[in-house]
């Protein structure tokens, strides 16, 4: 008798319960409507206010619009749960996955960080012969290469150790820094091996440390680096480790790539590096799935590929899962998030929220992509491609390497990957040098229609936007044990500079011809996803009862945002720190980002990807003592904020010296004007805001070095 046996799903999509959150949002909405209504009523019916009120109406409407964009995103949150155990039963042969790591500067990004990320990837719980790890080094550093060589030797001990004992955290610096991670197995054999492994890791660290302090003998394996200048050198591609034996104890392939760089040839930062990685890996292993991680984001959950595969293979319609994005989480986050950059509440509400729409944006690190989506395919287009011939059109798009086009064609037509079509990795090196050259992309579609997109320092967001515009959806997955963990920058200028790059990147997208608005009108970006991408005082007199509207709005808005923080286990202090940083970044990072984009549009200058300096790992050393300090340095990023502080402080000083009792609404724009007229007329509400700001800034100022 036939039973109607349906295999259990690989994942579930569960709409989140968020009644209280919705109530809070509605309260804020009510006050927003009241405020705008009051403003319109006063202007149109009572005919009062004039130009300042019109300006206020404009500002409040902008604020309201931004708020609606973000709230629309948070409204329909969903969660996804995956079942990796079912995967192995349902899918007998798991597909290969290529793992990409990017690093760009051996000083700002110390190689031991990259090494840890690579080790965590090599040790993932996935068939070893299905994984290949490619490291792109934009710094063209013999030290990075040397470190990876040493790491690959250590990996031969580390990977079997992790698998034998089911180690949970497979980045050694993290594993050895936290005693609690080693508990669970008290056998003497484990103790012995653990001790040996710790010593080996210490040796590896010392090796790398020593190497960083001496000059390299650039002969033998290092000869390629002899004449290489960082920004002027041919491609250097080296197969560090080629895995020829299948079985549990093997280590996945490890390949080092430093693409060609020439002074007059734009290299497009990380997006350029990712495209070279796509091509080189395309000719070596050509896996249908790609994982992308930054050098400072190690895999914290060894099952992460299995989780991602549950979504990528388990979706009924491929269209519903063009890519999978894991959250960016940070280890050893400072208490109360003093720099407002741990993104916990933001990701919890926005990423889960947008997951209920067309899907999360691409965060650049911790994302699994279908290779064919990166190659510019639209959903359902694979059927059209069928058995795609390597015709001229394909070469025009993908560049002139026949061998690469063959590999791309097999991906586009969805034909099965055949390992034996690539005899050995080393034998492909000469051909891969060609696809990693500067000139390879000339007159091709790379960066425009396929690959990671050029034109924004937030290439990840732009690439995700292009994918959504084609009609693909994406899935956000937050696993119980964080999938990836990274380090968030600390200090003053590093944080503001990172925000500035994101701001610049977002604004480049808004002003580009791939803007979300255009994508919604002419392509398949959904309207509310568009609002998500877009998201990125004048007060009544104090005697006027209408003052209650902005006051209520202020309170309800802040209560809601505070509730959001508390809801994800963050302290009120962390909320306050985030609000503080939001104020600081909007007048510095966002302002400079905006300026940079205007200058780019006017063709005065180009935008630059300023790499975030990564803190050294402190496994065997003590912790930093000045963590959480907002430090000032000579960076121009501080100019606008300090100007505003001085302006506010001057306002305060003048106000306290003034004897005038006539209080009128004054705002930041009219303030300098009034300063010149020497008529300081400041209302109590503005005084409150100014004082609060000055106090907040004063506190930071005291810590100035
Ligand atoms: O010319 C470059 C510049 C950067 N990178 C790499 O890009 C990654 C991200 O750089 P980082 O300075 O760490 O920036 P973050 O702000 O931490 O990165 C976030 O924001 C970037 C866009 O602004 C995205 O590229 C990242 O994936 C995303 O994690 C790092 O691995 C770098 O090595 C390169 O490979 N080549
Ligand atoms: Mn980073």
Task: Give a summary of the structure in a few sentences.
With 705 residues, the chain is an alpha/beta fold. The protein has helices spanning 19-44, 50-75, 84-90, 111-122, 142-165, 172-175, 188-213, 269-284, 304-314, 344-355, 371-374, 381-385, 392-398, 402-412, 429-435, 459-469, 493-511, 516-522, 527-534, 548-567, 572-587, 589-601, 639-657, 671-677, 684-702, and strands at 11-15, 78-82, 97-103, 131-137, 236-241, 253-258, 289-294, 297-299, 323-325, 329-330, 367-370, 474-476, 484-486.
Structural overview:
Helix 23 (639-657) crosses helix 25 (684-702). Mean pLDDT is 82; it is low at 660-688 and 693-705. This protein is globular. With 705 residues, it is of the alpha/beta class. The protein has a domain at 632-705. The strands form three sheets. It has an eight-stranded mixed β-sheet with strand order 5-6-4-3-7-11-9-12, with helices on both faces. Strand 3, helix 4 (111-122) and strand 4 form a beta-alpha-beta unit. The chain has 25 helices and 13 strands. The longest helix has 26 residues, at 19-44. It binds uridine-5'-diphosphate-glucose (UPG) and manganese (II) ion (MN). Uridine-5'-diphosphate-glucose is lined by residues 102-104, 109, 136, 138, 269-270, 273, 294-296, 364-365, 457-460, 498, 501-502, 505, 609, 611-612.
